[in-house]
Structures are given as structure tokens and as C-alpha cells.
Amino acid sequence: LAKTTQPISMDSYEGQEVNITCSHNNIATNDYITWYQQFPSQGPRFIIQGYKTKVTNEVASLFIPADRKSSTLSLPRVSLSDTAVYYCLVGDLPPGGFKTIFGAGTRLFVKA
Amino acid sequence: DVKVTQSSRYLVKRTGEKVFLECVQDMDHENMFWYRQDPGLGLRLIYFSYDVKMKEKGDIPEGYSVSREKKERFSLILESASTNQTSMYLCASSSNDIPGEQYFGPGTRLTVT
């Protein structure tokens, strides 16, 4: 199973773009890359998912290079409410089960 | 909106007790998961189920069992609770259409004394 490595913490200021990179050197062909956000005392919340190249939604962008050994979550113009832990997740699809591994997460602190 | 509910937000049990944690989802999702979360360790997968009566071990299944008799319900069982099972337990579900998009419940903080 592919393990992930992320920075433990990051600091930013309101209005800045934040990029969080995740390494997953052993990613398998069928694995998708997913990012989650978690606030204290809450369950994680899905942000974005991708397989290759670039994916964008109303919240974030996800950049995945051709070798797929890493991915970068990009949060445009962060606000104080984006202070949270961000998890990179790699997993494959059913059938045969959906095995996932959450990393330790990146604690993002947004300052005023 | 998808709703994943867990039977308790807080639970205190004694060592050796049998503990049941219940999870219910209302979106007809095929996949359901149990995680535990501990400070500094992130989320660790205990068990998951991709169909009724089907289960697969995750990374840390020791000391736990699960039951999925109905599609919407996934139960985590601690046969004989121990203090090292004090943790936050999170249930999640996902559809086969977008399996990476897991919907999480609010969590159950279990304390074993």
C-alpha cells in the first residue's frame, strides 16, 4: 500500500495562496489521490480527488505530475477559517476492497 | 446531504467490557469504514466493508471486530476493551461511483478506564 509523506505544519497569512505537497512514491496504477480537511472535534471533510494532471473545483486545485509520485493541493487566497489539518490519501478502487492510508496530515495555520 | 451518524459522541467504559459502536449512513453507500484517530498518528483504518456481510481488515484490526448485516449500518465491536483503545473513533462511508470521497461521521470519543 502506498504511504504518504506530508509536512507536519505550515503557516500562512490571509489572502495568500497555499500549496501543500504530498509524496507517495509507491503509488499503484489503480490508486487515486484524495485530500481531506479536518477541523478540531469534527470528522474529515472531502476536498478534492484526482488521478493525474490537474483537477480544480470551487475550493481547491490538485496538481499531479506525470509520474504521480507526488501531488500538490493548492488553496487560493486562504482565510482564517482555512486553519485546519489537511490529509493526503491514496487508495485504490473496489472490487477487492478499498484500502486507504491517511498520512499524519499537515497542520495549516492561517494568520491575520 | 449525506448523513453519517454515530451512536454516541462520548463513551466511557471499563477495562474488559464489550463495547459496541454503531454507525448509520443514509445514502445507500456500498463502502463503510472504521478509523481511529490518535494525536500525532492521524487516522488509521481498522476495518472496512464494501458490501453487506463483507469485511476487510485495515491497518490495525487487532482487538476489534465488525458487523455489517444491513447496507446502511456498520458496527465496530471491542470484545474486551483495554486502556490502549481509548481514542476517537470515526466512521465513514463512500459510494462506488466516487470511492475516494468518504463522508465521515462526527466521531465517538471512547475512554476506557
Keywords:
heterodimer; A: mainly beta; globular; B: 113 residues; mainly beta; 4-stranded antiparallel beta sheet; 0% helix
Describe the structure.
The complex is a heterodimer of chains A (112) and B (113). With 112 residues, chain A is mostly beta strands. Helix content of chain A is 0%, strand content 49%. Chain A contains no helices and 10 strands. Chain A has strands at 9-13, 18-23, 32-38, 45-50, 53-56, 61-64, 70-75, 84-91, 100-102, 106-111. The radius of gyration of chain A is 14 Å and the shape is globular. Chain A starts with 8 loop residues before the first strand and ends with a strand. Helix content of chain B is 0%, strand content 52%. Chain B has strands at 4-6, 10-13, 19-25, 31-38, 42-49, 56-57, 65-70, 73-78, 87-94, 103-104, 108-112. In chain B, strands 2, 4, 5, 6, 9, 10 and 11 form a 7-stranded mixed beta sheet that branches. A 4-stranded antiparallel beta sheet of chain B has the order 1-3-8-7, with no helix packed on it. In chain B, a hairpin with a 6-residue loop joins β5 (42-49) and β6 (56-57).
Q: Got a strand count of chain A?
A: 10
> Poorly predicted ranges of chain A (pLDDT <50, ≥5 residues)?
none
Instruction: State the share of residues found in helices of chain B, binned by percent.
Output: under 10%
Mean pLDDT of chain B: 92
Low-confidence stretches of chain B: none
The biggest sheet of chain B amounts to: 7 strands, mixed
Which structural category do the helix and sheet elements of chain A fall into? mainly beta
Order of helices and strands of chain A: EEEEEEEEEE
Structural class of chain B: mainly beta
The gyration radius over C-alpha positions of chain B equals 13 Å
